[in-house]
């Protein structure tokens, strides 16, 4: 009897785990066996996600046949993307006839990732590698980015595609869709060739935060020379979100080289600098001074040996998240999302967040690179807007913007492990056409 009881006890776990395995297999089969229909919506079997409505009904995507007759390998489609003579280039870069135009009301408030996006004057928005500031005082959003409205050419020594520095563009909006051009709020230096902002230098990835104590708007940016050997951060300051910003200085933070960078302001008012260092081999994180004009002596090294850049940092509940890109020049590559309980680390990579479209698009971050993550106005907790740049290295001013819904499924992973076994904890959902359904909530509540 004792032997029989022990055998039964031993068999119980086996039976339980076998049943669990069968349930998971059935769920995976029910999802993956659905026929592929280009443009069709994928229904997500997750009760937690139902609160996000159409944002998570992602689409399958089929790209046109390759113009060179190659097979459909990832590298082949990337080659087509980078080839300005490709017959399918317009698939990635639709012409102005398909632009997002606030002057026309037929598709008002809809985002079309990859299309030209016009401002209220009818000109393409120039805010590349940028970020968003919501200003409580003016109750407006401000979009800052690289103003690249100039010819693209190759830098003399390394042959890097570049545009002469024009400055930092600024656009204002009440709804995140209609953008007014506020001008170049930090302008290039035309004459002094030794100045950090001389047109021959590099100004990338500007981000702006507001300091409540000093009542100043503070801009941080990547400052470099044409061949990327200076590798520094630059700081500018203004009393108004629309500038003009006064450039203060550049420096090597914590004594290290700094390449792609971003800043993140936490809920307690402490701001942090994130930057790629040691030729992108690792990421450094450190708090800023109380006036946001310098770093402190505190710094931690994370993602060591991983060669990541294009950091986009955000917070949900008690966890911090960071989306990064690999280092492949202007070519797209696979994004990773990292999570940490403390902003100073340790940080853990939890996979590629891209969902929908097709495999080639997912492993190339929908042919774009991360730049910023914005809380979705009026949305449920865990809903964000992922902002990325689709770079066009032969004509950088014609680079495009990809804004897509991003959802953090912390609760789903804790409560529904059988329902969501194949989707990452943080998901960026591909939608060829979408809108923020909660946009009016913030406006109506004020």
From TrEMBL:
Alphabetized InterPro entries for the sequence: Glyco_hydro_43, Glyco_hydro_beta-prop_sf
Source organism superkingdom: Eukaryota
Organism for this UniProt entry: Coffea arabica
Name of the protein: Beta-glucanase-like
UniProt key word Hydrolase: yes
Family according to the record: Belongs to the glycosyl hydrolase 43 family.
GO molecular function (one): hydrolase activity, hydrolyzing O-glycosyl compounds
Keywords assigned by UniProt, alphabetized: Glycosidase, Hydrolase
GO biological process: carbohydrate metabolic process
One Pfam family here: Glyco_hydro_43
């Amino acid at each position: 009897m004792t032997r029989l009881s022990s055998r039964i006890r031993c068999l119980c776990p086996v039976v339980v785990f076998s049943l669990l395995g069968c349930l998971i297999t059935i769920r995976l089969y029910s999802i993956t066996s659905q026929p592929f229909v280009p443009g069709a919506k994928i229904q997500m079997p997750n009760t937690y996600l139902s609160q996000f409505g159409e944002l998570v009904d992602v689409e399958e995507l089929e790209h046109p046949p390759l113009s060179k007759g190659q097979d459909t390998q990832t590298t082949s489609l990337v080659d087509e993307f980078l080839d300005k003579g490709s017959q399918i280039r317009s698939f990635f870069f639709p012409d102005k006839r398909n632009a997002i135009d606030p002057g026309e009301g037929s598709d008002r408030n809809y985002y079309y990732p990859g299309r030209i996006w016009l401002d209220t004057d009818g000109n393409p928005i120039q805010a590349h590698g940028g970020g968003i500031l919501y200003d409580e005082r003016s109750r407006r959003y401000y979009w800052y980015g690289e103003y690249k409205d100039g010819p693209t050419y190759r830098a003399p020594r390394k042959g890097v595609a570049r545009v002469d520095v024009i400055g930092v563009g600024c656009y204002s909006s009440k709804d995140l869709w209609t953008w007014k051009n506020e001008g170049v709020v930090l302008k290039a230096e035309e004459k002094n060739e030794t100045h950090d902002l001389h047109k021959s230098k590099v100004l990338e990835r500007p981000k702006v935060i507001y300091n409540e104590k000093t009542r100043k708007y503070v801009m941080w940016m990547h400052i470099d020379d044409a061949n990327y050997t200076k590798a520094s951060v630059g700081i500018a300051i203004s009393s108004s979100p629309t500038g003009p910003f006064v450039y203060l200085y550049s420096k090597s933070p914590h004594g290290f080289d700094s390449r792609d960078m971003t800043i993140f302001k936490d809920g307690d008012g402490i701001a942090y600098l994130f930057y790629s260092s040691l030729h992108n081999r690792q990421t450094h994180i450190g708090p800023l001074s109380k006036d946001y004009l310098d770093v402190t002596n505190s710094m931690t090294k994370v993602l060591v040996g991983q060669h990541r850049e294009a950091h986009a940092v955000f917070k949900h509940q008690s966890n911090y998240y960071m989306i990064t890109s690999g280092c492949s020049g202007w070519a797209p590559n696979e994004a990773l999302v990292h999570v940490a309980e403390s902003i100073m680390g340790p940080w853990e990579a939890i996979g590629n967040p891209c969902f929908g479209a097709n495999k080639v698009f997912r492993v190339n971050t929908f042919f774009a690179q991360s730049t910023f993550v914005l809380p979705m106005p009026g949305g449920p907790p865990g809903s964000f807007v992922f902002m990325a740049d689709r770079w066009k290295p032969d004509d950088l001013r014609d680079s495009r913007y990809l804004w897509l819904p991003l959802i953090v499924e912390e609760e789903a992973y804790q409560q529904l492990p059988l329902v969501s076994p194949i989707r990452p904890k943080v998901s960026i959902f591909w939608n060829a056409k979408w809108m923020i359904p909660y946009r009016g909530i913030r406006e109506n509540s004020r």
